Amino acid sequence: MFCHNAGMTLIPRHLTERLTAALCTSRVVNVVGPRQSGKTTLVRDMLQAAEFLDLDDEALLASLGLDPYGQLSILSASAKPGLPIVVDEVQRLPRITLALKRIVDRERRASQFVLTGSSDIFTLPKAFDSLAGRVITLWLWPLSAAEIRRAGPCRLLDLAAEAAVSPADVPVSRRFARQEAIDLLVRGGFAEIRGLEDRDRMARYESYVDSIVERDVAPVAPIRKPDTLRRLIQQLAHRTAEELNVAKLCAALGARQETINAYLDALSRLGIVHRLGAWTASGARKEVRSPKLHFMDTGCATALRGEDSHSFGLRADPAALGHILETFVFCELEKSLPLLKRRWQLYHWRHDAREVDIVAQAPGRLLALFEVKASTTVGSEDFRHMDWFLADGPGKSYRGTAFVIYLGEQTLSFGPARLALPLSVLWSFPASVVRP
To answer: pTM to 2 decimals?
Structure first.
């Protein structure tokens, strides 16, 4: 099994199976993910490469930049059949895309190049070609809770596709204490950081943000005010799971709307934040159109907010834990999407006082709705917005399942396709589904 090296511990990555399949069918495989999410480690552990080109090597970057087509052609011609050329940190040389196109169109065989980068090189303004039809792009996020706990991928949305999901269909959730769940939230999914003590972990995340500002953003967008970008990242950590209000961000940072929008776009491209779109349906005219903002690692978000495992005790602000918990659940569902049988897309929804935290939609007019509750108790009242949405609201012509994810221990049914599930359901699916 191909693994992520976290210190002395090997952690299997669920994306391995998708990467294996992509190498069999695509000329170029592009692995994208935030800095330190494990892209290089995954590729090094998994692949025997003809060549491994690390563009963090300034001399190599300068040399390859002079004639990317000529140099890659020589390497490709001498490569052992079936072994790809790996280009790490490829976003540092956007014009390499034209050279790649010329080479893979000449050879027309699978698994010629594997690219890794903190942003998708084919969407960068300086890229010369998109390689449409020749490349598969896979996102590798920080470790999921299921990977950390050595479980199988979370397949909760696969269950939602069943005609009438019931508690019997859901795997037995692993027992967990409230403090254990909070510890998962504040440690996050970066393997080299999550095991550190609180003080050291916070310092590492601050350095992590510096690296993003100083190294990763430049290939994506011009940054004229790096201090404004740093302060924006801090603001976004405090506003995770809230609807995005650019005007308020501008006021808080003393920056122009064009600047904030450009920086938000850059952070989205780097996988630091995600702007979760509002779900709409035909005939539903009044849904709020503003996206909801999610910070894509709760460990980084809580560190930037100055929070640790002791910050969410009995006297803590319940809304703060609620937002972090909602972001955690969203991130876990997002990480599961490439591993599912169907193609699901995630949204949020709000109309007046009614709100659904996460709306997942699949082809065939299929919905799964999620309410996230930072409490150890749950009742039928927690389903009221989802019930209205499916019975009388914009989802009434869809087939839907309603889930409440909470901090309790029991899987409970509140009627057909209405389930309350412990948070630990996210890391309770069997590991046997991960193939070596």
So the answer is: 0.93
